[in-house]
Task: structure prediction
Amino acid sequence: MIKVVGLMGSPRIGGNSDMLLDAALAGAMEAGGSVEKIIVEKLDLHGCRECDSCMNAGTCKFRDDMELIYKLIDELDVMIISSPVFFSGVPGQLKMLIDRCQCIWARKFINGEKIGGGKKRVGGILLVGGRERTHFDSLILTFKTFFISIDVELMSQLTFASIDKKAAILDHPSALKDAKELGSKLVNLVKKRE
Ligand SMILES: Cc1cc2nc3c(=O)[nH]c(=O)nc-3n(C[C@H](O)[C@H](O)[C@H](O)COP(=O)(O)O)c2cc1C
Result:
């Protein structure tokens, strides 16, 4: 079974990122994926303290909901992240999760491990912002860096600018359809690998 993990990065549950991710996961499920959705806002997380204890051990010393995320990152075939732009960056809750993956970075870049056992893993991002398109630039760079660190290849990205109010994405002519297609495309890419 192709394992698809969706990270919903907005603290506004039922908002634009949430709807986009639901559409993408529906597409992934239709294509045959087994999907798991994580609402980052609901996780109990600490921020990275840069204590460097992960540098040799490859594990984080904190015990919190990141234990579930680490397990999912090891197991997944497809990762889909949806996020709003906050001050041209990633919302704090999601950034905390990403920073806590420094131990995975250490496993890969210090211990030479292949995350996910070396199988081809693919990812997609769904980004939404209230203002102009340039605000996505640093966000995209953050996700590219994150995906490289966890051995997921970023294959698809969709950005929706000028979408501000809660659920305004519903007025976009193609956003949910596009997101659904992204989900099914990523699962089909993994199928080709098998
Ligand atoms: C704290 C905060 C910062 C924001 N910063 C930006 C920004 O820099 N650029 C932008 O285009 N939109 C910005 N927005 C608007 C959100 O990206 C926009 O409302 C988006 O639709 C929220 O998506 P959601 O419903 O998934 O949370 C900001 C919103 C908040 C609450």
In short: The mean pLDDT is 97. Residues 130 and 163 are 5 Å apart (CA to CA).
